[in-house]
Amino acid sequence: MTSHKTHARRLMLAAVGTGAVLLGTSAPVSAQPPPPNCTAADLAGVMSGITAATSAYLFTHPPVNEFFTTLKDVPAEEKRATLQTYMDANPQVKADLTGIRQPAVDFRNRCGGGPGPVGPMGEG
């Protein structure tokens, strides 16, 4: 048989524990919701659209596809300069890929953060 003091302590611990759980679960409710269209699902949709558009662009522009494919053999410290040289020599490709990546820029501007540069021109 437990004493009244032990029983009172258990009730007190249960009350404190319950209060902590209730406070812990109520905090997220009072947190600010993300701006409209700024959820993880929205980001995934934007990124998948960019990936699909980049793939389609590369398949329909074989020389560009070949260039980006050869980048895998370029040492990491040389990739940025190689990419910059290619883009400077091919302004239409640069404009096309910048346009494909624009939804990521829009998402980042609208939602405050989000992805960095993505697609074949992205530095990651």
From TrEMBL:
Keywords for this protein: Signal
Gene3D superfamilies with a match to the protein in the record: Haemophore, haem-binding domain (1.20.20.20)
Pfam assignment, any one: MHB
GO molecular function: heme binding
Statement: the UniProt record of this protein carries the keyword Transcription: no
Domain Haemophore haem-binding stretches: 36-112
Signal peptide: 1-31
InterPro entries attached to this UniProt entry: MHB (IPR032407), MHB_sf (IPR038378)
Presence of keyword Oxidoreductase: no
Domain of life: Bacteria
Protein's name in the database: Heme-binding protein
